[in-house]
Specification:
By secondary structure, the protein is α+β, with helices and mostly antiparallel strands. It has 3 helices and 5 strands. Helices cover 28% and strands 24% of the residues. A hairpin with a 5-residue loop joins strand 3 and strand 4.
């Protein structure tokens, strides 16, 4: 069961958190109505709770896109060479994102820009709070 958050693009982080809390309570209490789960266009799939590191989301009609948000983990990231010429790696918290979309509806370049924008916003929580 995946309930729909309506008008998410017009809500702030705190409003979304409050609404998600209310929807989660309804789901736990088995009080969601069929209308609460219809009308979505983008589905967020979070497989991290199943301890998977990567996901390939599959679109189900009537969705036009699905965003897979996998489990975050610290990964080594190449930072260049030090003064002695040795390779330097630093641990960075990485959040794998996978966007699947219907090419008949969404242009690939637009999907790539959306994914880059989302990664940019998520990389600094201060942007999310604006």
């Amino acid at each position: 069961m995946v309930p729909v958050v309506r008008d998410a693009d017009r809500k702030g982080v705190f409003d979304l958190a409050r609404e998600l809390s209310e929807i989660s309570k309804l789901a736990r209490d088995k009080k969601l109505k069929p209308g609460d789960m219809q009308g979505r266009h983008l589905l967020d799939l979070e497989p991290g709770r199943h301890r998977r590191l990567r996901v390939t989301p599959i679109i189900n009609a009537p969705e036009v896109a699905i965003l897979g948000v996998s489990r975050s983990a610290f990964r080594p990231v190449y930072s260049g060479k030090d003064e002695k010429g040795k390779d330097v790696f630093n641990a960075r918290l990485m959040l794998p994102l996978s966007l699947s979309y219907d090419h008949r509806v969404i242009d690939g370049a637009l999907a790539a820009r959306f994914t880059a924008y989302l990664a940019n916003v998520l990389s600094d929580i201060r942007r999310t709070l604006l």
